[in-house]
Amino acid sequence: MESIIKYLKERRSSLLMEIKSGDNTKIKDKIETDTAVAWLEKINELGLEHPKEYDFIKLPDMKTGYSEYHIMNDCESGDVNNWIELKDETGYPVTLIFDDILISRKPK
């Protein structure tokens, strides 16, 4: 992943020089390259493997108004009173809404 990120950063620098010299037709390419670099850096940071190793789940709109999905650890119990809600570092519950995307590693 590092080599392609390096290549894209070099391409971005080249595009930036072209833009600075007056070629405004390269602006879109630079923006797309910036986006690609940002995504690849995030993928690299998270240690993600090939996309075929994952399921991508787009959360549906359940037509329940502006409600949220909560992430729970069921503690191997069907009793919701035993469940523990996932919270962020500030102690606030981690919530999702429709159209958010979950990335789930496929079993090996």
- Sheet with the most strands, sense and barrel status: 2 strands, antiparallel
Report the helical percentage: 25-40%
**Are there runs of 5+ residues with pLDDT below 50, and where?**
none
Strand content: 15-25%
What spatial form do the alpha-carbon principal axes imply?
elongated
Spatial order of the strands in the main sheet? 1-6
Elements, N to C (H/E): HHEEEEEE
Backbone CA Rg: 20 Å
Ends distance: 22 Å
User: What's the mean pLDDT score?
Assistant: 95
Number of strands: 6
Structure explained in plain terms:
The protein is of the alpha+beta class and 108 residues long. Helix content is 36%, strand content 17%. The chain has 2 helices and 6 strands, in the order H-H-E-E-E-E-E-E. It has helices at residues 2-20, 27-46, and strands at 54-58, 69-70, 72-73, 84-85, 95-96, 101-105. Strands 1-6 form a two-stranded antiparallel ribbon. Helix 1 (2-20) runs antiparallel to helix 2 (27-46). The longest helix has 20 residues, at 27-46. The protein is elongated and about 65 Å long.
